[in-house]
Queue: 4 jobs
Job 1
Amino acid sequence: MVESVFISLDTVAPPSNTQVTVLDKNDPPTIGQTTLSIKENSPLGALAGNIGAVDPDVGSVLTYSLLRADTPDAFRIDATGSFIVKSAVLDFETKSSYVYKVQVSDGVNLVPADITITLLDDNDNVSGAVLHGACAAFIALRWCGIIRTPWAFLERTLAS
């Protein structure tokens, strides 16, 4: 409640007090982050990020829910607005981003938003390239008759 005092400058009317009541309306929450990212091959339970919802009304408690999950459904949202890995496989080469529709509520207002989670590509082919090169070298040397057994190839490779 806000109290205001008005004083009349008119000499005929006596001064008076007026009381004004201001009612606060419930403001909707806002979502700060709609784009999150996480490295591919992240383990179960890893944090992709928080959507950072806030409510300007003091004392509001926010709740989060998924309205629509992507396919495959690789993430869950927790009570604080954080997206957590729930799938065993996050592979950039198979799927590079996920889109979820979430809803944030302060108990009165419902605010929907699309959240995009982008996978960051990890160089997961390094060991395969080295192995591939070693196999190609072994096949070439064997074809030329330089190596007769795989053991000789391993001895030469380990010695160098």
Job 2
Amino acid sequence: MAFLECKSVTKEYATTTALKNICFSVKNGEMVAIIGPSGAGKSTLLRCINRMIKPTTGEVIFDGINFNRLNSAELRQQRRKIGMVFQHYNLVNRLSVVENVLHGLMVFDDEDNCLDTLIAKRVCATAFSNNNIAEDFLQLSVQ
């Protein structure tokens, strides 16, 4: 089974077809790059995948779940499993590079209150066997 699958995804605006019948699948662990010239629809495709915008037609299936069928609460819950760096990203200067990258992993309760603002440090410390390396990464500035 594919980890991510786009089935006949089309996105149309009033006078423009940004995506037309896009079909592909990505297996778990597979690395994929989306390349193309400016205006080719790369950002539109990514926004359709995480349903920041809804495709006009077609399906986006992520980890076996059809994102087109999710209500807003379900979609918010599923988005917590997806990391995305935007083309025009807004970094938080007071956070380290790692904390900015891992910011999407912050844990929120049902009322969207942050339960643990130090999760980036915990993830980083766990990810590296040498905690000195983890601390070095945490100290990197975004400037």
Job 3
Amino acid sequence: MMTIRKRRPADGGLYPNDRNVAKGGVRPDRAWTVKAMASPTLQVGVPIAMDLRVATNGPPASAERHVYSLGDHLRVRRRCYWHHGIYVGADRVVQFGGVLFDKAHSGVEEVALQEFHRGDRVEVVPKQQKWLGLWDLAPALPPEEIVRRARWLADRRFEGTYNLVGRNCETAALWCVCNMGESLQRQRFQAANAYLGGVVYLIYAYLSGRGRAPAWATRAILSFMAVRVALLVVYYRHNARFYRDVRPYYTERARLA
């Protein structure tokens, strides 16, 4: 069966004397839109004008286009984390550590937009973000400077320097955007880690207050403190190395100024 929808004139007005149509007459200037349903058979007596247009639900997915601006900070979901990059124009993105299972040997590279998102939904990260939701990050740099920094990193690649804690894709992206080599994902992880540590310590204090704490509780609190200290050491080591590696950029820009 086919359903037929009537379109109004372009000026949005009403047709006069519509009762002629109700009696089966069809105006030559009347346009109809036909949408095929389960059966292609037309019902007898259904008026159809000469202008027939097949209704669709919009363009196919392959024709969908995304428009981004130079210097946009993009991110896409990768299982349990966000992967970040900088849009540099012409459907190209600079990313760091794009290889999922070999990040230790990956570097900064400029890739096609499709290779960056791999079919997943891309989000534009706001240029003004809050650190742990408490205070604002530094203001965003001009788009031309963001793109210049991203391509400077891609030219040098820095292969084998990726580190999930202290030098990841968001670290490079935020340095390009606001001159701050930091990862808000890492900050959130560290905040959750500190919260968990407080809970573990309260449990330990409660058990100690009731007498001698069991051996497993002592081992748990010591292990947790050791892991936390190790994560901080790894973070400061790799983050400091990142700032040492980008120091030549400032020298080059000062020489050109």
Job 4
Amino acid sequence: MIQTRISAILIAATLTASAFLAFPGQAFAAALSTPKVFATNDEVSASSTTYIFSFKTASAGSIKRVEVTAPSGYGVGGATFTGSSILLQLGTLSVSGQTMRLTLPVAIPVPVGTQLTLQVSGINNPSSVGPHTFDFATKNNAGTTIDSGSASITLTDSSVGPSSIGTDQIQDGAITFDKLAADVLSYITGLIDNLRVELLALIDAEAAARMAADTQLQSSIDAEAAARAQGDINTLSSAMQYTDSSVTNEAAARAAADQTLQSNIDSEAAARAAADANLQDQIDDLTARVEALEGDEPEPTTISIADFASTEGDAGTKNFQFLVLRSGDLSGTSTVDYGTADGTVEAGSPPPATEPSDYAADTDTLTFLSGDDSILVSIQVVGDMLLESNERFFVNLSNCVGCTITDAQAEGIIQNDE
């Protein structure tokens, strides 16, 4: 009985969770709104480049997969989705041909106009300038397209260097998957608590029923033994008229009856023991599943900054783009200061670059809002026509509030192009 009841509880929980995730009024195959594509390095033939894909949903639907198809010539075999979104950590990435596919653990209901931003690293740029068109699509559990669209990017010649990317273009009030994931996980947590309460009550009721059944069985055994004893007394009282053969036959019959009764008692006891063992196995399995669902605590919020290298140009200034990444728990606000510094003399490293002759000094404070996972810092490098070695300067992070710095220094390499 308890196995049937447990199955009923699990089926009810599954149906309730499915009803929560269902999204009414779903329309399919609408055009995505304002699809955009950006690259942290838009030079031709650049390797291991980070791309940011941004778009707004045009239809309400439950998104299970997000697909980005790169044009021919792009190398996406080593592509990885980056960032610290809960769903990105739980989701799985697969690459088929030129299509990069992020599959989420559950279909997430998304209303019209939700802006989604994905960051993909490890893409190799083609050797042609373009323009190059990327195709986007969101799909539901059945694999049916909800929204689709495309956006183009034109690369720059390697002699020109990468273009500046405005941080506001990437951030632009994006609503990431984190808020939606938090709603779903909060609901499932409540569902688990309710399931635990009902299961414990069911176990107590089953234990009481088992105890009552055992008591009734023992009463039946005692009554049967008393009846047997009384029957033996009655038989002895009238045994005087029996022959020795009759007495022997009666004793044998009684012994056979007693053996049958004991066999029945042993079988019932064995069946009870097997049922109790099966019940304990089910309780242990369900307890393990509940503990697994209660699982992961949010990871701590961390901040790091990536190195950057490029040519300086022959004149004017050129922006060096340093990517500051926030990982772990993105639900709150974090701030961190940055500042430039001249390079130092070290064996095996380029000689130091100095400001203002090689670059423009800069300090500021970066603010990550809830859901933000990256910001680009632009440092101006001064171009010249002097024949000189590669030079380096630093961008340092400090005073992190609401986070922990895991990589506090980025190295900017100014490559000589004379």
